[in-house]
Amino acid sequence: MMKKISNSKKLVLSGLCVALNIVLGVTVGALNLPFYGDTMGTMFSAIIFGPLIGAIVGFLSSFIKSILFSGIQNLPFAAINVMIGLIVGFAFKNRKMSLLKSFLVGLLLSFLCALIGTPIGIAVYGGLTGTMSDVIVISLKKAGASLFTASFVAKIQNNLIDKVGSMIIVYYIVKSLPLKYKKEFLQENEE
Question: What is the Cα–Cα distance from 68 to 180, expressed in whole angstroms?
């Protein structure tokens, strides 16, 4: 029988996951890179603790980042981070991980995040984000694409890099955990 993870351990690790999301998100934003970098903590916590904790970590990350760094107008984007926590948590609820499954979940997230993020980005920023991806949006708009299509294409490109890459990195982090922690957190062996 595996011992239950203590609430204090869950709280500490969840807090570290929130901090990781904020630090990576702010760093990537400051470097103006064409991806987001702010969901690895959400993914990790969702795999380790399940969808509810993953969603809470996602929301708190977005909330704190909006208050402290990016402005309250960015709070609607918290819906994306919450969705990531839920989807990753449910996808890995059986605690079985594989590289292929991580890649496929990253692909699914890429599409869903772009689908949810596009209308939010249009409502908050008029479809532009102030990043290199705006070149894609402007080019597609000039070519006759609708604002939604232009913004969606830019977001899906960013999300493919970000969500697939993040899921693969998190897969290798979880895989490299010492056996003691794998047994405690995952409760079962990996595939």
Answer: 36
Record the tokens describing residue 13, joined without a space: 């690790």
pLDDT average, residue stretch 24-34: 85
> How far is 81 from 54, CA to CA, in rounded Å?
9
pLDDT tens digits for range 106-162: 999 999 999 999 999 999 988 887 777 888 889 999 999 999 999 999 999 989 999
Please tell me the distance from the alpha carbon of residue 92 to that of residue 150, in angstroms, as a whole number.
33
The answer to whether 136 and 157 are in contact (CB under 8 A) is yes
The verdict on pTM exceeding 0.85 is yes
Q: Domains in the chain, start-ordered, CATH in brackets?
A: 7-186 (1.10.1760.20)
- Who's near 104: CB < 8 A, 6+ residues apart? none
Residue 161 identity: I
- Reading the block at residue 114, the tokens are 């772009």
Under the banding of pLDDT at 50, 70 and 90, the label for residue 184 is confident
